[in-house]
Amino acid sequence: MDTLNNRQCKEVEIINNLHFTTIKDLASALKVSEMTVRRDCLLLDEKGLVKQVYGGITSRALDKMPNYAVDSELSKNTLIKERIAKKALSLLTPGEVFFLDSGTTTATLAELLPQDASFTILTASFHSLEPLVKLDDCSIICPGGIFANKPKVFYNQESASFLRRYRAGKCFIGATGFDINQGITCSYFEDVPLKQAMIDSSQEKILMLDSSKFNKISTCVFANVSTFTTIITDDGIPQPYIDFIRAAGITLHIV
Asked: Which one of 64, 79, 100 terminates a domain?
């Protein structure tokens, strides 16, 4: 990268560390204009150092990383996911408004909602929508957009803005990786703005993940542990993570 200036080298470093970011966030981090960042990223893309995608910039390292496919995860750890989802269900009160993220553990919560449930639920997740639309007394709100097949979400640049117009008592968020040093990650950049919109628009922020996700790093950082008020997982969670979560003052439910 000897032909790049210091700012451009820093941009590559930030993008490689985060795996995905937006022009706005990159400009804010470097305290420069968005136009400057756009010009830089066009050059960096041409040099094959980063990749411009719909909604932001990703690291070229993603091209070499295995993707998380929601369909392939549906049959994994099903009993554990059901225990986690049952605990999440117990935290809801009738008539509540809540956000439901993508992923197989959050979709299990959708499947467990009783037929007479009465909630307002906001979600972009295809796997969650399937069982939710069968609930006659629930109001289901979906931001719509283009269907992204691998993460199974409906997404476009307006989806996150749409979700931010609403407020909810709770959000239930999934993740594919949780590392003490690198934060909480997901596999697809499309998920990042949707997750963050749900988190920012909710009073209680609940992370649902099975213990296989600890000590794992996926492609896109979307939050750190202090983002959440509650974490629900199973009894396979490593002890250092129990200590880390509790030291942060976060409610931890182990099922």
From this structure: 64
Angle between helices 23-30 and 34-46 (to 10 degrees): 110
CATH code at position 153: 3.40.50.1360
**What is the pTM for the complete model shown?**
0.75
Domain of 98? 70-254
Give the tens place of pLDDT for each residue, 118-130: 999 999 999 899 8
Other beta carbons within 10 angstroms of residue 126's beta carbon come to 18
Q: What is the pLDDT of residues 170-180, one digit of tens each?
A: 999 999 999 99
Say yes or no: 176 and 121 in one domain.
Answer: yes
| CA-based nearest residue to 43, from 91, 9, 75, 18 | 9
